[in-house]
């Protein structure tokens, strides 16, 4: 499975002194949601890939390139999710993540 690189920022000591721990976590809810969604979608792709590869008896160059393209879409998933979490007001970002998921 792809390594998820979505930053859920660690608060500084100054931030923790100003805000309660609950408030700090509440400010990061979109980051946690993005992380969980990206992880679950990656897991679903991984499960589907394993089920599909059970039917492959011969690996050809064409199949390898199709598989590499499929892995590229999975690698782009954390990036597109992070963009959506950081700017979920924009419809263009929603279209971007939807196009990644469609691939």
Our count of helices gives 5
Contiguous uncertain segments of 5+ residues: none
- Percentage of β-strand residues: under 5%
The total of beta strands comes to: 0
Indicate the overall shape.
elongated
Element-by-element helix/strand order = HHHHH
Q: Can you give the helix content as a percent range?
A: over 70%
Q: What structural class do the secondary elements suggest?
A: mainly alpha
| Mean model confidence by pLDDT | 77
Radius of gyration: 18 Å
The largest pleated sheet is described as: none
Q: In angstroms, what separates the terminal alpha carbons?
A: 17 Å
Give an overview in words.
- The protein is mostly helical and 103 residues long.
- The chain has five helices and no strands.
- Helix 3 packs antiparallel against helix 4 (61-86) and helix 4 runs antiparallel to helix 5.
What is the element layout, followed by pairings?
Layout: H1 13-18, H2 21-27, H3 29-53, H4 61-86, H5 91-102
Write a concise synopsis of the structure shown.
The chain is mainly alpha-helical and 103 residues long.
Tags for this model:
5 helices; mainly alpha; 103 residues
